[in-house]
Amino acid sequence: MENIDIRTKVISQGIKYYEIADVLGWSDSKLSVLLRKPLKEDDRKLIERAINQITTKRNIR
């Protein structure tokens, strides 16, 4: 399974993939396709930033 570290972080934080796609302005299907193969470093950083942004907003509420 590709990108297990990102998948584990998403699951442990209770984040839905559509939330990440929404923050990035991507479609759900684009994110899904990207997560099925090794990520380019730029895409990995964008996804990690989106995860951090979502978790930060949740912690503020």
* Proportion of helical residues: over 70%
Stretches with pLDDT under 50, minimum 5 residues: none
Provide the domain count.
1
Q: How far apart are the termini? A: 33 Å
> Which structural class do the helices and strands define?
mainly alpha
How many strand segments? 0
Output the number of helix runs.
4
Instruction: From the alpha carbons, calculate the radius of gyration and give it in angstroms.
Output: 11 Å
Overview of this protein structure:
This protein is mainly α. The chain has one domain (4-60). 75% of the residues lie in helices and 0% in strands. The protein is built from 4 helices and no strands. The chain has helices at 4-13, 17-24, 28-35, 41-60. The longest helix has 20 residues, at 41-60. It is globular. The termini are far apart.
List the helices and strands and how they pair.
Elements: H1 4-13, H2 17-24, H3 28-35, H4 41-60
